[in-house]
Amino acid sequence: MNSVAVPATDDSQARLDELQGLALRLLEACRAQGADQAEVSCTQERGLSVSVRMGEVETVESTRDRGIAVTVYFGQRKGSASTADLREGSLEATVAQACAIARHTEPDPAAGLADAGLMARPGSDGWPDFDDWHPWPLEPDRAVDLALACEAAGREGDARITNSDGASVSSSASLAVYANSHGFVGAERGTHHSIGCALIAGRGEAMQRDGWYSYALAADDLEPPAAVGRRAAERAVARLQPRPVATGSYPVLFCAEVARSLVGHLLGAVSGGALYRRASFLLDSAGTRLFPAWFSIHEDPFLPRGLRSAAWDDEGVATRASALVDDGVLQRYVLGSYSARRLGLQTTGNAGGVHNLLVAANAGGFDELVRTMGDGIVVTELMGQGVNPVTGDYSHGAAGFRVRGGEIVHPVDGITIAGNLRGMFQAIEAVGSDVDPRSHIRTGSILVGAMTVAGSD
């Protein structure tokens, strides 16, 4: 993208100050109602989204959302209520409703705010700046022009592109304040921008669909619209004339945008909610080797322009950089304070989820991994919900490419890849350096040494 002008007037700090004042007033109202502990979240978001298809405008949406959530604790009894109405009467009613719910709720020994000693505190220079505030003064007409240019570049990029599922451009800016009765008050702001396109190649029953998108916190970091459109066209055309694959055991290379789903399955299995409900195939696995000895995943909440950088989690607990997996060994779980108490452990500063995860590479880029694989399957798309979280059994519909002699020879679709996640984790042979930057899970392509592939003989 070309250089993006910064808005002449940015009132975000003034609006954050207003939200902070509102949160503190609501905490005082909770105390006045007799709550022992309380927490308040205040959010505002403004956004613009446009979509086009076949050279025509389909939608133009401007959004302005806000929300107030109040949670109170009377001892170990919890009540929550929310509103989008900022009139005093509505705010008073929201606090009263949260308190009424708490008074009629059964006590929960794990309920309550995170421990006061774990709250994040600003340094001598204040809170760190993660460079995540880049408002884009995007007018609807300009957004439409960008979307049209993206789609046109894709449709004109190859004669085999016969139709379009459309192109879109979106931009949003959000503000959030979290405060609790431990005295913690945190205010943050962030921006998110994207350009995407989906195209159809071929005709009749031979049609194939694929797309591409660019996503960033700063519009300057987005790929040019024409580049996004051309990439979408290349991907759609590459899928034409798929051929069958014989059922068997193959090495499987998950391309980077698909590989992060493997990390997502790990996260689901080591999250506190799954563990205390005993609905995870990785119960009691902290300290055990799940991956090859060279494999590691590091969490870095302080990454500049990281998609989930933060100095505190959703409970105000200070975040910290730490290993999730080191030398193939699971180092810890992913916990907020409630799940930690249920497990007899301490929060890991992950209320609301993980921050930026960095999967260490041990290989070169995608092409090198294809050569290394020699004979196997590249997976570029997964279909369906094919994971049993209790057993780790894995079975997904998939599409991608057949590899022979270290080269891609033809596309494949309608296949199923299957295994068990424990075995798949152990069978990882390489992680590529081709990191997909469009997710807070930053990983390159992942090569699994052997999986069952069901095709058609």
From TrEMBL:
Stored InterPro entries: Metalloprtase-TldD/E_C, Metalloprtase-TldD/E_cen_dom, Metalloprtase-TldD/E_N, PmbA, TldD/PmbA_N, TldD/PmbA_sf
Domain Metalloprotease TldD/E C-terminal, chain residue ranges per copy: 247-455
Residue ranges annotated for the Metalloprotease TldD/E N-terminal domain, each copy included: 38-102
GO molecular function term, any single one: metallopeptidase activity
Listed GO biological process terms: proteolysis
Organism superkingdom: Bacteria
SUPFAM superfamilies named in the record: Putative modulator of DNA gyrase, PmbA/TldD
Domain (Metalloprotease TldD/E central): residue spans on this chain: 134-240
Gene Ontology CC terms: cytosol
Record bears the keyword Protease: yes
Pfam families, A to Z: PmbA_TldD_1st, PmbA_TldD_2nd, PmbA_TldD_3rd
Keywords annotated in UniProt: Hydrolase, Metalloprotease, Protease
Protein family per UniProt: Belongs to the peptidase U62 family.
Cross-referenced PANTHER family: METALLOPROTEASE PMBA (PTHR43421)
Protein name: Metalloprotease PmbA
Organism: Luteimonas wenzhouensis
